[in-house]
Amino acid sequence: NFVVIATRNEGKVKEFAELFGAKGYKVRSLADYTDLPEIVESGKTFAENARIKAQIISAHLHVPVLADDSGLCVTALGGDPGVYSARYAGENATDADNNARLLQALRELDNRIELPAGEEHPPLLSEASFVCALTLIDPVANEVIEAEDVCQGYILHEERGASGFGYDPLFYIPSLGRTMAELTMEEKNELSHRAKALRMFLDQLPDQTN
Ligand code: ITT
């Protein structure tokens, strides 16, 4: 039993593998296939891009496919980088490039966030939220299921932590006093935008662990 995820992002694959693994499913990603059609993420919203990825790959493979489009929306930057999160610092940007670009953009604004008095937090530059849109397309049953969720936090003035991927080292969660990159995968999978958006899919999936 396996689920095909229309992604080339290894960080996403690891998280999905853990989440689906709990129900006894393995995951395959685009790295497991050759000769796939090109995907152009031309949508203006996360949901549109998730639909594009799921449509192209499910039509090609003729099996149910789940796609994830996600990103970081930073309040002080008017919601940027948003759907451009993966390419924020340029077409072939690494996670480190994108994080550096984000810190630079926020330092230029000289924005500071004050959290309620009585709490000790490191310097925070802006409110932010991670967003994850999921689309599952079953091309045989002609079925489309969509979900979207968010995870709220703040952008820290410097990177902290080595787990996770992408913007995780800059994404600070005040209630935990840690960045997303300082959480174990198990902890991230309890509260992340991706885990929350996926919960409905997981709840509907028959358990294959016994
Ligand atoms: P696929 O399209 O192949 O899935 P991608 O990396 O291009 O891979 P997106 O277009 O959805 O995926 O871009 C998502 C970007 O948003 C990703 O590159 C990360 O930088 C960031 N992102 C998404 N989820 C994240 C998370 O849980 N933690 C940190 N950064 C995240």
UniProtKB/TrEMBL annotation:
Homodimer. Pyrophosphatase that catalyzes the hydrolysis of nucleoside triphosphates to their monophosphate derivatives, with a high preference for the non-canonical purine nucleotides XTP (xanthosine triphosphate), dITP (deoxyinosine triphosphate) and ITP. Seems to function as a house-cleaning enzyme that removes non-canonical purine nucleotides from the nucleotide pool, thus preventing their incorporation into DNA/RNA and avoiding chromosomal lesions. The keyword Metal-binding applies. InterPro entries: dITP/XTP_pyrophosphatase, ITPase-like_fam, RdgB/HAM1. The active site is at residue 69. Its EC number is 3.6.1.66. CDD domains: HAM1. It comes from Paenibacillus qinlingensis. Substrate binds at residues 7-12, 70, 165-168, 188, 193-194. This is dITP/XTP pyrophosphatase.
